[in-house]
Design goal:
Blueprint lengths: L2 E4 L6 H12 L2 E4 H11 L2 H12 L5 H14 L6 E4 L5 H13 L6 E6 L2 H9 L1 E4 L5 E3 L19 E2 L6 H15 L1 H7 L4 E5 L4 H16 L1
Parallel strand pairs: 1-3, 1-4, 2-3, 4-8
Antiparallel strand pairs: 5-6, 5-7
The structure holds adenosine monophosphate (AMP).
């Protein structure tokens, strides 16, 4: 099964992708994570992408499509992929259809996480991540039980994404509405879309996604 998670920044795509990975033995492919790794490694691609990401704009289609193709081939023994943050433009969606077809696969389901714009700014600007294990936290909604100590691994260093500030979040939302929302119609044309209320708590969203997947495969 290959899934696309669609939704604005802060909708919970990464959180739900990690949970889906554990429950369904799927492989998460996050172009945002791949690009951040390239930035951290200081590669030429990372330097170019880093400037674009700082502005909250989209990296060119051919760059992200190339990253996805590489990772698909590296993980081809997996049961399937959860695409998180890709595709983000019609051009990327068409490229993904081609990449899947060439490998005898297809996008089976597209989960759209629906969240109000106003809630997103609050969600994104409060989030942080354990630098050791990657567990996600939020200043208001999910604080560690012991302040400053990760619940999962005991780590004490937390990081925030440089593009998680209000100004850049607004630019990312603008890019989402202009370039990514047309994908909902694209996948509705393929009868693959299930909409899920992303405003609910993490457990409820997880349950709704599972129900959508069970309904789709029934
Ligand atoms: P994300 O972690 O998915 O929120 O992505 C962070 C940033 O990486 C975005 O604001 C874009 O600048 C860039 N990015 C991630 N995925 C894509 C994509 N599929 N197409 C273009 N740019 C992307």
């Amino acid at each position: 099964m290959n899934l696309v998670l669609l939704g604005p920044p802060g909708a919970g795509k990464g959180t739900q992708a990690k949970r889906l990975e554990e429950r369904h033995a799927l492989v998460q492919l996050s172009t945002g994570d791949m690009l951040r790794a390239a930035v951290a490694a200081g590669s030429e691609l990372g330097r170019k992408a880093g400037d674009i990401m700082k502005r909250g704009e989209l990296v060119p289609d051919e760059v992200v499509t190339g990253l996805i193709a590489e990772r698909m081939d590296a993980d081809e023994d997996g049961k399937g992929f959860i695409l998180d943050g890709f595709p983000r433009t019609i051009g990327q969606a068409e490229a993904l259809d081609r990449l899947m077809q060439e490998r005898g696969k297809q996008v089976d389901r597209v989960i759209v996480l629906e969240v109000d714009d106003d809630a997103l700014v609050e969600r994104i600007t409060g989030r942080s991540t354990c630098a050791t294990c990657g567990e996600g936290y939020h200043d208001l909604f999910k604080q560690p039980k012991v302040p400053g100590v990760c619940d999962r691994c005991g780590g004490t260093k937390f990081t925030r994404r440089p593009d998680d500030n209000e100004e850049v979040v607004r630019a990312r939302l603008k890019a989402y509405h202009a370039q990514t929302t047309p994908l909902i119609g694209y996948y509705q044309g393929q009868r693959k879309v299930s909409a899920v209320d992303g405003m609910a708590d993490i457990e409820t969203v997880q349950k709704e996604i599972d129900e959508a997947l069970a309904g789709a495969s029934a």
